[in-house]
């Protein structure tokens, strides 16, 4: 996810390569990434010294040893954006003290410029920092601000969401492929249909009930499909998927306390 963020910032010209530094603990991987992205890698200490804004993009379980290092290197005058699922604002405050922190939950669709990033500013993040975070993540798609209490659910909906959508699209495409349609064409049909439906809603069109009434003529094909969706309780089942991811995020915040 860190690489996606770097690439998106660079591609959108929000931040130039020369303004970015990154740190990876494995020197070989650092060199490979340097060559791939044209961004300079450096030690953690130098990165902290030279940066005013630091993106923390490790896995939640990998943050434990890093935060004391950040704290030791001196975070005074620095700002931190964390994309870690489960790592709460109070967790950062415990290690770093009154450092401006914003929790961001992006998703992999940022790579396609259609990301959804949820932002939760910490108590020391002033309006200028919040607006900077909105501007940076807006280069990758849309941003929404939510209080921290809703972050777990937001992770289930958006952070992990693309994976769930991929599974649904693959299932639809395989059904068509089983009937002889080329898998790539089937995936295109399914993906564009999801995208088109989502765009109608994002444009702020009619309420969903009205849209359903417009499409589903009595005794028609859509009505048949909707009836089956209700029988299968597909909406409620998808809610269970989102809830499982949200539960895991809540567990993670306990594990890394
Ligand atoms: N993947 C998603 O869709 C997504 C979406 C939203 C948010 N997130 C959040 O993004 C974070 C990263 O997820 P990911 O999927 O990108 O995981 P990932 O591919 O495993 O990336 C984690 C990166 O952190 C590096 N790292 C670990 N410890 C380090 C240390 N001490 N110093 C420097 N680098 C270190 C790892 O380097 P090595 O290769 O050396 O191990 C690796 O490059 C997670 O906290 C997750 O909650 C992910």
Give the arrangement of secondary structure elements.
Layout: H1 2-11, E1 21-22, H2 27-37, E2 40-41, H3 44-50, E3 53-56, H4 63-73, E4 79-82, H5 89-96, E5 101-105, E6 115-121, H6 127-138, E7 141-145, H7 151-159, H8 161-178, H9 183-202, H10 208-215, H11 221-232, H12 234-255
Parallel strand pairs: 1-2, 3-4, 4-5, 6-7
Antiparallel strand pairs: 5-6
Bound molecules: NADP nicotinamide-adenine-dinucleotide phosphate.
The site of NADP nicotinamide-adenine-dinucleotide phosphate has 21 residues, from loops.
Question: Hetero groups bound?
Answer: NADP nicotinamide-adenine-dinucleotide phosphate
CATH fourth-tier homologous superfamily of the largest domain: NAD(P)-binding Rossmann-like Domain
Which spans of ≥5 residues are poorly predicted at pLDDT below 50?
none
Radius of gyration: 21 Å
Oligomeric state of the chains present here? single chain
CA(first)-CA(last) distance? 22 Å
Order of helices and strands: HEHEHEHEHEEHEHHHHHH
How many DSSP helices?
Answer: 12
- Which band does the percent of strand residues land in? 5-15%
If classified by CATH, what would the architecture of the largest domain be?
Answer: 3-Layer(aba) Sandwich
Mean pLDDT: 95
Strand order of the largest sheet: 3-4-5-6-7
Total strand segments = 7
CATH fold-level name of the largest domain: Rossmann fold
Structural class: alpha/beta
Task: Please give the largest β-sheet.
Answer: 5 strands, mixed
- What is the 3D form? elongated
Our count of domains comes out at 2
The percent range for helix content is 55-70%
């Amino acid at each position: 996810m860190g690489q996606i963020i770097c690439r998106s910032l660079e591609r959108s010209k929000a931040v130039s390569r020369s303004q970015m530094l990154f740190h990876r603990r494995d020197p070989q991987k650092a060199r490979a990434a340097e060559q791939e992205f044209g961004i300079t890698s450096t030690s953690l200490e130098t990165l902290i010294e030279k940066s005013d804004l630091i993106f923390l993009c490790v896995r939640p379980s990998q943050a434990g040893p890093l935060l004391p290092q950040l704290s030791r290197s001196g975070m005074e005058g620095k700002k931190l954006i964390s994309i870690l699922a489960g790592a709460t604002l109070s967790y950062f405050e415990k290690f770093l003290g009154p450092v401006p922190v914003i929790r961001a939950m992006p998703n992999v669709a940022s790579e396609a410029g259609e990301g959804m990033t949820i932002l939760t500013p910490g108590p020391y993040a002033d309006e200028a920092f919040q607006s900077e975070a909105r501007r940076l993540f807006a280069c990758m798609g849309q941003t929404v601000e939510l209080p921290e209490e809703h972050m777990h659910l937001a992770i289930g909906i958006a952070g992990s969401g693309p994976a769930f959508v991929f599974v649904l699209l693959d299932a639809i495409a395989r059904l068509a492929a089983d009937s002889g349609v080329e898998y790539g064409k089937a995936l295109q049909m399914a993906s564009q249909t999801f995208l088109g439906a989502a765009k109608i809603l994002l444009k702020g069109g009619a309420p969903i009930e009205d849209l359903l009434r417009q499409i589903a003529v009595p005794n028609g094909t859509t009505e048949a499909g909707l009836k089956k969706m209700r029988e299968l309780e597909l909406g409620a089942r998808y809610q269970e998927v989102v809830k499982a991811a949200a539960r895991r995020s809540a567990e993670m915040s306990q594990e890394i306390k």
